[in-house]
Amino acid sequence: MSSDVPTTTSTITAAGAAAKASVVDVPHEPGVAKPDAILTVDHVTRRFGGMTAVDVQHLEVQRGIITALIGPNGAGKTTFFNLITGFDKPSSAPKLIGGPKAGEAAKSSFNGNEVGNIGATKVAKQGMVRTFQLTKALSKLTVLENMRLGAKDQPGENLFVSMIKPLWAKREAEITVKAEELLARFKLLEKKDDMAGSLSGGQKKLLEMARALMSDPVMIMLDEPMAGVNPALTQSLLGHIQALRDDGMTVLFVEHDMHMVRHISDWVIVMAEGRVVAEGPAATVMDDPAVIDAYLGAHHNTDLGDDSLLTDEVAEELAAEVTAEENAEGKA
Ligand SMILES: Nc1ncnc2c1ncn2[C@@H]1O[C@H](COP(=O)(O)OP(=O)(O)OP(=O)(O)O)[C@@H](O)[C@H]1O
Q1: Which residue's CA is minimally distant from atom 2 of ligand 1?
Q2: Average pLDDT score over residue span 241-252
Q3: Domain locations in the chain as residue ranges
Q4: How far is CA 200 from the centre of its chain?
Q5: Residue 265 beta carbon below 6 angstroms from any ligand 1 atom
Q6: Strands (E), the chain
Q7: Is the CB–ligand 1 distance for residue 76 below 6 Å?
Q8: pLDDT class of 163 with cuts at 50, 70, 90
Q9: Domain named ABC transporter: which ranges (predicted)?
Q10: Above 50 in pLDDT, residue 296?
Q11: How far is CA 197 from CA 134, 183, 193, 201, 205, in A?
Q12: Which of 31, 215, 225, 297 has the least CB density, counted as fewest CB within 10 Å?
């Protein structure tokens, strides 16, 4: 993993250019096939009572790029995340009795493996991990302990290993080294012995992202990474996300912050009322009158036009203010 996290989004990296190039010939149509799909989803529906929250008939996510999933409140984005990461089961899941007709049952494949009907732990083991809209850091554990929980092949998982100290001590030491490297990358190393509950909202988001990386995922799914984060931390979060893509990871994120979507996405998928209604590069999708009508509405001009927060000078000033604020919070 590179430790060079870009501090600005204004320069495009070679990996970023390659990511954009990989989808340049893909037609801008909902459900369109991708040249190298890492995730393919078919017939995934989820109903709550009489309401259909998700109805995705076909969707592909291209490997190695940053894809944004956008849509109005209640469009089904989080429910869709839950379904593909095994935190929820599709209403169209294959069942022995009373299930959907053959060919209409939900099917998802990730990195060449079926993931449609398995639980979250197994999905994570296949290399697809996620973060949550509301962070799930365990507040009564230290930052380092939270990180250690994210590691795979924990010594305690194997009875044989757990009984032989040299075996588990070696693995424990490896986990700690990795956790500290990631904490350093996310500028949280100084906080490693602090309780996670004492971190600011932005720091908790960083911790959650860092913890997700402990399992060396192939794809990371971020549910509203900017929600509740002070605007000054935005720049650093954007840099971290781009760095993940530049290291070869696939990123899929849900976000309402249109600055973020426009500046770091290589591809954008729009959901409305549970369905995929548009796909394409950010510039194309966000200028699509149908998308503006369905989603961006009256906020279109203000949300999409103001890039001033993303200039280096403003970001640096804001970052300095926030660091001071967070230091003060941490001491309090
Ligand atoms: N457990 C549940 N029980 C009943 N209805 C639910 C449940 N979870 C989600 N819904 C409903 O499903 C629809 C889709 O919700 P979801 O949270 O997936 O949308 P979203 O696009 O993520 O919205 P937001 O952007 O506000 O987070 C909403 O109408 C929501 O009220």
Answers
A1: 48
A2: 92
A3: 14-137+219-331, 138-198
A4: 20
A5: no
A6: 37-48, 51-62, 66-70, 107-110, 113-114, 128-130, 219-223, 250-254, 267-272, 275-280
A7: yes
A8: low
A9: 39-298
A10: yes
A11: 13, 16, 12, 9, 12
A12: 297
Residues in CB range of 174: below 8 A, 6 or more apart: none
Q: What is the ipTM of this complex?
A: 0.96
Q: Is the CB of 74 under 6 A from ligand 1?
A: yes
CB count, 10 Å around CB of 87? 15
Tally DSSP H helices, then E strands, for the chain: 13, 10
- At residue 301, the pLDDT reads 41
Nearest CA to 268 out of 230, 228, 295, 297 is that of 295
Cα 66 from chain centre:
9
Which CATH architecture does the domain made up of 14-137+219-331 adopt? 3-Layer(aba) Sandwich (3.40)
For residues 190 and 237, what is the distance between their CA atoms, to the nearest angstrom? 18
Spatial separation of the C-alpha atoms in residues 28 and 189, rounded to whole Å: 43
**What is the distance in A from the centroid of ligand 1 to the CA of 79?**
6
Asked whether 297 lines ligand 1 (CB < 6 A), one says no
82 lines ligand 1 (CB under 6 A): no
Residue 107 bridge partners (DSSP): 42
Give the amino acid at 229.
V
Cβ burial of 325 (10 Å; 0-12, 13-18, 19+) is middle
Does the Cβ of 56 fall within 6 Å of ligand 1? Answer: no
Q: Using alpha carbons, select from 260, 258, 236 the residue that is nearest to residue 315.
A: 236
Pocket test for ligand 1, best of 78, 132, 224 (most atoms within 8 A of CB): 78
What are the backbone dihedrals phi and psi of residue 271, each rounded to the nearest 5 degrees, phi first?
A: -110, 145
Here the tokens at position 244 are 């993940």
**For the chain, what percent of residues have pLDDT higher than 70?**
78
All residues at 6 or more sequence positions from 265 whose CB lies less than 8 Å from its CB, including other chains? 66, 67, 68, 281, 282
Which token pair is 74? 């209640």
From CA 20, how far away is CA 22, in angstroms rounded? 5
**79 Cβ closer than 6 Å to some ligand 1 atom:** yes
Residue 229 reports pLDDT greater than 60: yes
